[in-house]
Specification:
With about 800 residues, the protein is an alpha+beta fold. It has four domains: about 140 residues, Sandwich (Immunoglobulin-like); about 300 residues, Coagulation Factor XIII, Chain A, domain 2 (Alpha-Beta Complex), CATH 3.90.260; about 110 residues, Immunoglobulins (Immunoglobulin-like); about 90 residues, Immunoglobulins (Immunoglobulin-like), CATH 2.60.40. It contains 14 helices and 40 strands. Keywords: Acyltransferase, Calcium, Keratinization, Lipoprotein, Membrane, Metal-binding, Palmitate, Phosphoprotein, Transferase.
């Protein structure tokens, strides 16, 4: 990856910083002024004094012993005599013959070789040397003559970052030792072959991750020499979940295959009763993605010395995947107007996004929403070696006042007071879980940690979130870092309703204890099934342990004194949705159920209000309001049919076709107050992808893509988007208009590049309809097996 060089010194800094050399600056040949012939024997008085004071260090140019350090090129020994045609001077030739120099370095980068296979890095589609820390690797060094351990010395030097220093672990001296020991930088000779040495090199499990520049230092009786840096020999160091001493160690091979090596996943969306899913290409091994991920770290301007700590690295990436503070990868947009970029629903993977950010040298990509932020975050973490999974929380609360409750304010007529309702409940919210130990927290808080790149609230002044320990969240220990309180409110806050009094104050009238944090979902290990991981975030709803956790958490919130008031319970209220729920373009039907468990007649005044919502829980517009009085006989259940006509909502919908029905009620006889909010979405159709013929690497194949418009209106300026790792890069296909209720199909050709099971992803985008996508499993045969 070409380095980004930033000015780190100016004239005003002279005297403040030591003089340094920036190792990532490209080598520049400096033309030296040749002395005139009659000046060869002249030297300054200062040099003559130094020669007298220390004759061993300041010898004359014609002295027999050469003591200066020579920088030698790392060349192919078979091409020693090739070059620019210039012959070295006699003095230079004699000096090089006397010194022990490096002629070439072979890092043994073969995809089928032991280095990359043992380090589980053979899947990276690049010619870079990618390894994991805390593990040995092998390399060959070819010298100018055979190595004599009695008189010769050799060590490796590795440098990373703009200002490498031995003191902070960014300038590494790797000594040559007899026997390697775990946990330290060392090298040992394991094989000799004339002028060639095979070294086994060990790195500690705490090494800084990133790109290291490699040089070899040699010395003998005639003086020292240093190999010239060759970018082809740069070493890319990653975290190592296979190493027991690495803080990201994960002891299950099945989970390592899923959370580190799987480059395709599932992301869930919708509502808790209408869970949708879409396939996402993480693409962490695609060519150029590792360079892009390291570029994201470099753009953070954070010290490289902190890049060995996964807690610090995940906080950096959490901030850098969004753009408000630091011009990070993605610009968020929830407005519905995406004319200046790409609609968030169009993206099917992270590769296009990261490549566009890298190739533009740090211009935020337009646009993202929570699942896009999370998908990109998961890609970066897996690419760097940190186990990660994308997680969806349904009915996800957004607490804005650190109360650890979700507060709904109503006026005297039980109508929502919109300007006070800053807290919101998103239909769904997507973030990332990552795996690591937490030595910075009390024991027991390691394992899965929540990190979130969607810019919701700031953490220590920057839009980022986590890592927050799932164990701490589950037990209400919201005082532990980082951002446990915010994540706790997202998954386990109580929803409290407040009614305005005549004097302007508010009284708590009702609370719901099990509406936030439902069906927390991620892709299952080894399959495409949805796995419910709610139990990792909180104890079973209503259990004694769960109530203790909530009370513990809320005692640290801003409304601890107003926590949870009791209410009468002889009337209950719930909303029921049949099957998968209403479909886009059709009338929506729900059932409101009122249950009377008392032995007396109850009269209920029920207020209903339907609002079009952004999936984030932000109110767009109210489209329907009703009030009814309902009498309920003792120990009876009344079911009320509720319907929303297509004509009522057709011009009001936004991205996710999300709707929220708010119900509030008062029982005339007991003054009991009931309230609930029910979120649902209008389901969209899938794209149907049908492969035609056999899929073989290097041979053209085709697929048929079909779609039926569910709406009675014309879809304008439709664009299809296709992509698939190993099948084809991201491609946009303009399709013009699609008539109301019309069915369309088209054929697309491409040439697969990788064998094995692959997934082709497709999505549709237009102003009238979003969140339409499809996936097809395609098994690609290798060219050799297809012909046999």
């Amino acid at each position: 990856m070409p380095p980004v060089i930033h000015s780190v010194r100016d004239s005003s800094a002279v005297g403040r910083f030591p003089t340094v050399t920036l190792p990532f600056v490209e080598d520049v040949e400096v033309e030296k002024e040749e002395p005139a012939e009659n000046d060869v024997n002249e030297e300054s008085a200062c040099l003559r004094w130094l020669r007298k004071a220390c004759p061993c260090c300041y010898k004359r140019a014609d002295d027999d012993d050469a003591t200066e350090t020579v920088v030698t090129g790392v060349d192919d020994p078979d091409k020693e005599n090739e070059g620019n045609g210039e012959k070295p001077t006699t003095e230079e030739g004699n000096l090089n013959e006397l010194l022990l120099t490096v002629r070439s370095i072979d890092l043994m980068k073969s995809k089928t070789g032991a280095n990359l296979l043992e380090h589980h890095t053979n899947l990276y589609q690049s010619d870079k040397f990618v390894i994991r820390r805390g593990q040995t690797f092998q390399m060959w060094i070819t010298l100018s003559r055979p190595f004599d351990p009695n008189t010769d010395k050799l060590h490796l030097e590795l440098k990373t970052g703009p200002l490498p220093a031995v003191s902070n672990g960014t300038h590494i001296i790797v000594p040559l030792v007899e026997d390697l020991e775990d946990g330290r930088w060392e090298a040992a000779v394991v094989q000799r072959d004339d002028r060639r040495l095979k070294l086994s090199v060990n790195s500690p499990p705490t090494a800084v991750v990133g790109r290291y520049q490699l040089t070899v230092e040699t010395s003998c009786a005639n003086g020292p020499a240093t190999s010239r840096h060759d970018p082809a020999n740069d070493i890319y160091m990653l975290f190592n979940p296979w190493c027991e001493d690495d803080s990201v160690f994960l002891d299950s091979e099945e989970e390592r295959q899923e959370y580190v090596l799987n480059d395709v996943g599932r992301i869930y969306y919708g509502t808790d009763l209408q869970i949708g899913e879409r396939t996402w290409d993480y693409g962490q091994f695609n060519n150029g993605i590792l360079a892009a991920c390291l570029f994201v770290l470099e753009r953070s301007r954070t010290p490289n010395s902190g890049w060995g700590d996964p807690v610090n690295v995940t906080r950096i990436i959490s901030a850098m995947v969004n753009s408000p503070d630091d011009l990070g990868v993605l610009e968020g947009n929830w407005s519905g107007d995406y004319s200046q970029g790409t609609s968030p629903t169009v993206w099917s993977g992270s590769v296009e996004i990261l490549k566009q950010y890298y190739e533009s040298r740090g211009t935020p990509v337009k646009y993202g929403q929570c699942w896009v932020f999370a998908g990109v975050f998961t890609t970066v973490l897996r690419c760097l070696g940190i186990p990660a999974r994308t997680v969806t929380n349904f009915s996800s609360a957004h607490d804005t006042d650190i109360s650890l409750t979700t507060d709904i304010y109503l006026d005297e007529e039980m109508e929502p007071i919109e300007h006070l309702n800053a807290d919101s409940i998103w239909n769904f919210h997507v973030w990332t879980d990552c795996w690591m130990s937490r030595p910075d927290l009390p024991p027991g808080n390691g394992g899965w940690q929540t990190v979130d790149a969607t810019p919701q609230e700031t953490s220590q002044g920057i839009f980022r979130c986590g890592p927050a320990s799932l164990s701490a969240i589950r037990n209400g220990q919201v005082y532990l870092k980082h951002d446990c309180a915010f994540v706790f409110a997202e998954v386990n806050s109580d929803k409290i309703y407040w009614q305005k009094n005549k004097d302007g104050t508010f009284s708590q009238i009702y609370s719901e204890k099990n509406t936030v944090g439902r069906f927390i979902s991620t892709k299952a290990v080894g399959s495409d099934e949805r796995q419910d991981i709610t139990h990792l975030y909180k104890h079973p709803e209503g259990s004694e342990e769960e109530r203790i956790a909530v009370e513990t958490a809320c005692s640290y919130g801003s409304k601890a004194a107003a926590y949870s008031s009791p209410t009468a319970e002889d009337i209950s209220l719930e909303v029921i949705m049949e099957g998968d729920g209403p479909r886009m373009g059709e009338n929506a039907e729900l059932t409101i159920r009122l249950r009377n468990v008392s032995s007396e007649l109850r009269t209920v005044t029920l207020h209903s209000q339907l609002a079009v919502m952004y999936y984030t829980g932000v109110h767009k517009d109210t489209v329907k309001k009703d009030t009814v009085d309902e009498e309920i006989l003792p120990n009876e259940v009344n079911e009320l049919a509720w319907e929303l006509n297509y004509d009522t909502y057709k011009n009001q919908l936004v991205d996710q076709a999300a709707l929220m029905l708010t119900l509030s009620a008062r029982v005339r006889e007991t003054q009991q107050v009931l309230a609930t909010q029910f979120s649902f979405r209008l389901r969209t159709p899938d794209l149907v992808i049908k492969p035609v013929g056999k899929a073989v690497v290097g041979q053209k194949m085709k697929v048929e893509i079909s779609f039926t418009n569910p709406l009675p209106v014309v879809l304008k300026a439709v664009i299809f988007h296709l992509e698939g790792i190993g099948l084809l890069p991201g491609k946009k296909i303009p399709y013009a208009d699609i008539g109301g209720h019309a069915s369309v199909s088209f054929t697309e050709h491409f040439v697969p590049t990788l064998p094995g099971p692959r997934k082709l992803l497709a999505s549709l985008d237009c102003q009238q309809l979003t969140q339409v996508h499809g996936v097809s499993d395609i098994n690609v045969e290798d060219k050799s097996s297809a012909t046999s």
